[in-house]
Amino acid sequence: MHLEKKANVLLFGDELLHTAVHKYDDIFLKAGASIMKPVKVQKSATTSASDKKALQCKNHGCQKKFVEEENNDQACRHHHLPPLFHDMKKGWQCCSSKMVYDWDDFEKIEPCVVGRHSVVGPNEQFAASPTVTAAENAASAAGSVSAVAVAQPAAPLKSIDDYNQKNPNAVTAVSAAKDNQQAPAPMRTDGKAKCVQFGCQQEYVVAENTEASCRHHAGAPVFHDASKYWSCCPKNIKYDFDSFLKVPGCVVSAHTDIKTA
């Protein structure tokens, strides 16, 4: 994985966090290995000896220049884990209790480790948000279960028709439920009722109610962060509430004013 800004601007793996990313920048995690910044042309022979000796510290949260002769166990204050970006919050994995929203406040979070400067950078990897981590774990678990299921032969399925032919006098659960099912009585006495189906909520005339009267959603509404959608239509995500209410239903049936469990 690697990082990019808007307009596919690539962030190199060895770029400085403070200089590569600016306030209000949008950062995107893309597939593909991270690459290092192209090596610049060698400096001229007039470069001073002090510049040649200056090294770049690659500890998280430091990134300062240092001279190895002056390096010691108290020289570098840094974070021992990578940065964490979740929704609009920013922080460090090692200091997750100090999450902030403003980029300037993020840069001011006090380091939690003191040690030597290092030119050997840790594996620079931005932490995945809890949502992404949970999704990856679920996908991995599902893949393991699928592999086990494929290895075992599936038992032959028996159809309801086969069962009914072999047991002509048996009463199936479906037919028994239909025989015992009664139309729910309306809750009001004026001949009208209010539909309680998800995505409908309209008032209707009971006598005119048919199996094609109500277009609604089979699932419940889901609100996650700033997004809104129906559990039965997870691909139709909206961020504006009015747009969310206008998402057409995916099921057609009769209106009902009786809430089911």
TrEMBL record:
Keywords from the UniProt entry: Metal-binding, Repeat, Zinc
One GO MF term attached to the UniProt entry: metal ion binding
Residue stretches making up the CHORD domain: 57-117, 195-255
One Pfam assignment: CHORD
InterPro entries: CHORD_dom, CHRD1
UniProt cross-references to PANTHER family, sorted A to Z: CHPADIPLOID STATE MAINTENANCE PROTEIN CHPA, CYSTEINE AND HISTIDINE-RICH DOMAIN-CONTAINING PROTEIN 1
Name of this chain's protein: CHORD domain-containing protein
Organism: Phytophthora kernoviae
Lineage: Eukaryota, Sar, Stramenopiles, Oomycota, Peronosporomycetes
